[in-house]
Amino acid sequence: MMATTHVFVALVAVAPFAVVAPEFALPLSIGAVLGGLAPDFDVLFDHRRTLHFPVAGFPSALVAGAIALEIRSPTAVGLAAFVLGAWLHAGSDAIGAGPELDPWNNSSDRAVYDHVRGRWIRPRRWIRYDGAPEDAGLAVSLGVASLFVFDGWMTPVVLVGVAISLCYALFRRRIAEWA
């Protein structure tokens, strides 16, 4: 999935908490955006292995959420949103294709690394590749949905993210050719 899709998934996941506790909407949205993006910084290392934790991230998200519920500070809430967004990103990479430049060729049997079991999780290809039409549709749907909860500075962030998603999807296959 596209990085923007991961961000929108994280925003929608924390949206119910922002509705219940609107005073935490800002740290929730910042944490979700950063957490949705963070795992892909491992593109500089061993992509989808170094910073992706699809299995180990779940207990971390539960612990961070429990701490946020107990402490109820903006920092704790933002950190919990970050960890949740990062875990959702890593886990949802398994429903797409592999990390290769041309994933529509289905040449990889590696979607994301499971550090707990010490092996790669195979790609499910429900979203055929990052930037596929279904990925763009999901990004736009979730981005628009997040606008019902988050406003202010998040509105232009989401709208720019939607525009980036659509442009990337439009040129995705050409990008692989150009590279």
Summed up, the helix count is 6
Oligomer: single chain
- Total strands: the figure is 2
Quick one: overall form? globular
Query: How is the biggest beta sheet arranged?
Result: 2 strands, antiparallel
Helix fraction bin:
55-70%
Question: How do the strands of the widest beta sheet line up side by side?
Answer: 1-2
Element pattern in H and E: HHHHEEHH
Q: What is the count of distinct domains?
A: 1
Whole-Å distance between the termini?
19 Å
Taking pLDDT < 50 over at least 5 consecutive residues as the criterion, the unreliable ranges are: none
Strand content: under 5%
Q: What's the Cα radius of gyration?
A: 16 Å
Structural class: mainly alpha
Mean pLDDT score: 95
Describe the structure.
With 179 residues, the protein is mainly alpha-helical. It has one domain (3-173). It is built from six helices and two strands; from the N terminus they run ααααββαα. The chain has helices spanning 3-20, 25-37, 57-71, 74-92, 133-146, 154-178, and strands at residues 112-114, 119-121. A two-stranded antiparallel sheet has the order 1-2. α1 runs antiparallel to α2. The longest helix has 25 residues, at 154-178. It is globular, with a radius of gyration of 16 Å. The mean pLDDT is 95.
